[in-house]
Automatic annotation (TrEMBL), chain B:
<keyword id="KW-0808">Transferase</keyword>
<dbReference type="InterPro" id="IPR037171">
    <property type="entry name" value="NagB/RpiA_transferase-like"/>
</dbReference>
<dbReference type="GO" id="GO:0047569">
    <property type="term" value="F:3-oxoadipate CoA-transferase activity"/>
</dbReference>
<protein>
    <submittedName>
        <fullName>3-oxoadipate CoA-transferase</fullName>
        <ecNumber>2.8.3.6</ecNumber>
    </submittedName>
</protein>
<dbReference type="InterPro" id="IPR004165">
    <property type="entry name" value="CoA_trans_fam_I"/>
</dbReference>
<comment type="similarity">
    <text>Belongs to the 3-oxoacid CoA-transferase subunit B family.</text>
</comment>
<dbReference type="Pfam" id="PF01144">
    <property type="entry name" value="CoA_trans"/>
</dbReference>
Amino acid sequence: MSDWTRDELMSINAARALAGARTCFVGIGLPSTAANLARRTVRPDLVLIYESGALGAKPTRLPLSIGDSELADTADAVVSVPEMFNYWLQAGRIDVGFLGAAQIDRFGNINTTLIDRGPGRPPIRLPGAGGAPEIAANCREVLIVLRHSPRGFVERLDFITSVGHGTGRGDRERLGLRGKGPVAVITDLGILRPDPDTAELVLTDVHPGVDIEQVRAATGWPLKIADQVRTTEPPTAEELAALRALTAASA
Amino acid sequence: MAVIRTLSEAVAELIHDGDSVAMEGFTHLIPFAAAHEVIRQGITDLTLIRMTPDLIYDQLIGAGLVRKLVFSWGGNPGVGSLHRFRDAVENGWPRPLELDEHSHAGMANRYVAGASGLPFAVLRGYRGSDLATRTDTVATITCPFTGEELAAVAAINPDVTVIHAQQADREGNVQFWGLTGVQKEAALAARRVLVTVEEIVDELEPRPGGVILPSWVVTAVAEVPGGAHPSYAAGYSVRDNAFYRAWDEISRDRERFQTWLRENVLQAVAR
């Protein structure tokens, strides 16, 4: 039995994915946990940007909402919501957009709007788009973090809320989406990355103790596997301590 | 020039059955007390506009006063679903709810267009998203200078915008600070503007990042200390995260919600 949970593997690897980023547009939930962990481990000077208007927030604990007062109190600058979306996000100033998802497909497209329940029953209503469509369109790169399950990793989305790689390589350019789109999907089982030629997500890494068949079984489409699947580095004691301190002190 | 009124007078004078109403405040400064007064007065058939419906619209929707919702993210931040919103959308309870659904960037720009006196705004957005196929307030437009295809979103001009601010002076000039959200645009886009404030002061002292709405763009001001609870007013209160969590249980069940509404809103004393 290992000394960490699958969720901890997910958050720690998501934080590691921010090691090269300068600025990150942060969604609430798992992305916020990962981005705040990155500031405590691999990237202490990471600039956290929350859509509520906080540029360079430095919260001492995990906020419950994107508008908790600590985000504004610790920010380098506080701007209005139209300014945030137009001048900062749309203009392409932000390195990484960090998103969660209810459903994702093999091209990294995201559904956060509704889930079909079959004929005669109304779809399950989810919160909807929020900032995600334009985060996915305009950040230089997109990271996606969600737990691996056949319900989440689906053959066909019930609704395309935010575009990843559309129907394959070249679609983003056709749609005029200027950022690179999803560069990694980090789950509690491993990491998927888009194929350089087709943009279809390929399993490139598994976490320690996870085997490839487990990931296949948790994916709702026939998952492509990289020739050489790496195993992610086990969490360090420092990473685990920082993550546990962070989640223990959430708002 | 703005008039100073009690909350119940201001709501009765400014908000009417069938109005389109924007109650803005992005997590911070959400005008809950004004919404509760709308519920007490039974003002109905409303089209409600708000980026994040939050608990404030969950309560108005559950109270059966809402015909249509214009929004971009309908969850309880960090907690989960808005159950009254879901019940209305999924089951039509207590009445069917028409949706006009957008992204945050789209909603923000719709307010900007409304405040600017323009029929629409332009943005890089919606391309490839199914959102654009479900609404008649998004269209594709070609840039006349570069030929690039962009999204156009229709202006929002609410009949009434309601916001909560920290302070007003006795002339009805208003100042709010902290996370200022989209309230300036929502107010300037509206035909009538109601502002509830933590306090009315003799003189407004300029604050870093503060937004001033001069008295002549505000219709009425009502002094309502704590009027943003369970949201908050920076400098006066903190967000009641415990209530946001508790709302998940309160709102999940129709009867429990109705009991809560009766005991905490309908039977509460008007301010």
